[in-house]
Each structure stands twice: as C-alpha cells, then as structure tokens.
Write a structure and sequence with these properties.
The complex is a heterodimer of chains A (182) and B (191). Chain A has 182 residues and is mainly α. Chain A has four helices and two strands, in the order H-H-H-E-E-H. The C terminus of chain A is likely disordered. With 191 residues, chain B is of the alpha+beta class. The mean pLDDT of chain B is 88. Classes of the chains: A mainly alpha (182), B alpha+beta (191). Chains A and B meet through helix 2 of A and strand 3 and helix 2 of B.
Chain lengths: 182, 191
Amino acid sequence: MNNARYNPFSVAIHWVMALLILTTWSIAIVVGDMPLSPERIAGISWHKWLGVTVLFLVIIRLLWRATHPAPKLDLKMPIWQEKVMTLTHVALYLLMFAIPIVGWLMSSAKGYTVNYFGLFDLPDLLGKDKVLGHQLKEVHELLANVLVALVGLHVLATLKHQFIDRDGLLSRMSFSRSNTRK
Amino acid sequence: MKMNFITSLKCSFVLVFAGFAMQVMATEYGTIDLVKSNIHFTSKLMGSNLSGDFSKFSGKVVFNPDDPEKAKANLTIDISSFNAGGEELQDEAKSKDWFNTKNFPIANFVSDSVKSLGNGRLEVHGNLSMKGKSLPLTMTVAYQPQGKQMVFDASFQLLRLDYGLGSGNWADPSAVANEVPVKVHLALNPK
C-alpha cells in the first residue's frame, strides 16, 4: 500500500502537541490531590503555561489544517470506522481548543490571572465568581477526561492498524516511511 | 470718599470671601467611610498576579488640610477578612505559616509623623504591626477633596518575609514573591 504522508509541519505539530498535552495532563494529575504548597503552585503554573502553549499551537494547527487538507486515505475499512475516525479527529481538535479556554475562564473566575511563563499576563476573561469558578473546574475536568478517552481510542485504533491490519496507517504521521508497511 | 467707600467695600468682600474660604478649608475630617474605602494588595504566584483585599477594617484618621502635618492615623485591619483566590488559599492564608489569625487576628497601623510634600501629597511615617512584629513604614499619600469627603490614596510595598508571612517551605520567594504591593484608598467624612 502506498499511503501519502501528512506534510512535515502537520507531522511535527501533531507529535509536539501530543507530548505537550500528555505533560500538561500528567502535571494536573500529580498536582490535583496535593495540598496547597509552593510545589502545587509551581505545578499549577507549569500546567497553565503549557496549556496556554497548547492553545497557541492548536490555533496555528487549525489554520494550517484548514489550508492544507489531509492526504487521501487509501485504505479499505468499513464506513462506520471511517465515520468514527472523522468524528474522533474533529472532537480532538475541538477539545484541544476548548479545554485550555475553559481552563483560562476557570482561572479568571477563581480570581487568578493567567500569565505566560511569568513574562506577561493574559487578560481576565471573567470577573471573580466562586460558584462559576467551581462549575468551570468541573467542565474543564470533564472535557479533559473525554480527551483522554478519545486519545486512548485514537492510539488503540492506530495500534490496531499498525499491528493487526498491518496497513501502514501510522506512516501517514511519520517523517519517514514506516518499515512495517507492507 | 467715594473711592474709599468702594475700596473698603471691595476689601470687605475679599475678607468675607477669605473668611468663607477659611471656613471651608478648615474643615476637619475624621470618620472613615468604610463603604468607599478599601485596602488592596497584589501577590505574585510564580509571576502570576493574584489580587486581593481586606474588607474589614476600622480606625481613626484626623486630618485638617490647613495643617496637614498634624494629621494622625490609626487603622486596625481584621486579618480574617483576607480575601484572595480560592477557598484553599484563603484557609492557607489564615494558617500558622501565614497570618496565623488565631493568635494574631488584627494588623495595626499607627502614624507617628506626617510631612507635607505640597501639592496634596504627604509623607506619612508610622508603624505597622502584624503577626507580632512591629516595623516602621513610610508611605506617600495623595489627598484631594471629593464632594464633601477627603479622599486619600497611598501605595507602598511590603516585604512579607519581614513579618514572618510564609514560613517553612513557603519562605522560598520563587513560588510566592516577597514583595507585596499594597494600595490603600480612604474616604473621610467631615467631622
């Protein structure tokens, strides 16, 4: 099979964001149950800084994706699988955008101005509102959990294509052609 | 004679006006309008601004714009009215490592001398007591009449570690900055 690859910029931003999102999420998990301490403040700060980076990158990525269509998918798979794939990809894009925005809203509502690596402040999107801040936290966490589930599905599907179907799907997202391709 | 009369009339007008002006100027201000007054501070957490305030305070300020150097201020701040960030931060702020509100429920500022800098500006020297420590504090205060009230604005910077705020592993200023800018806005009613 001769699957076309995504362009190098798309491939690069895919993997950079994958790593960033994994790190940002891991920090949140570690910091989540910690009592308030300098370490927790440092963790939350890094979580926000990386989260803001994800937001910047996803905007660039969406603009890039809108002007650079995905390479044609030349695989035999059931229609329902293709539909699920498209839906998953759309949902991943939406969540990568929505989660940082909700996090930013949540931080504003809780009375913490978000900054970027201590360099500059981002504007407060909302006035301080304890109840709203708590609700936004719930939404932020719920969306993050949905993202984790979809990333899991995304990875499992890739693994299935790679090792069960052996159709070289993964090579679409790599810089050089995969060796496992038939 | 006629000229003299007019001149003296003018003079008396001037005197009356001057007297009136003196009356206005001589108004003494004393009680704090707590609704219009506030005490704000900003803390930096990893470079991120967290603003807050103390909503409860009381005190006496005596001020006469004719004799500003005789001004006196004695303010008492209810530390448990600390308001910044979320609940866990509020609780932490009241804990032993920070304000220890159980043992030190109030902070107190007492002026001991006031120097007029002209142009509606004062240099106020005094002592700020907080968490069992009393340290000298100097601030520049701008004042101006606003309606019937006299409004004061002061901004100065405190170093939290000077007052033992943030002990243990909180002492590291990289997570919570040592510098805490404070802004005080007081509206005084005429006596």
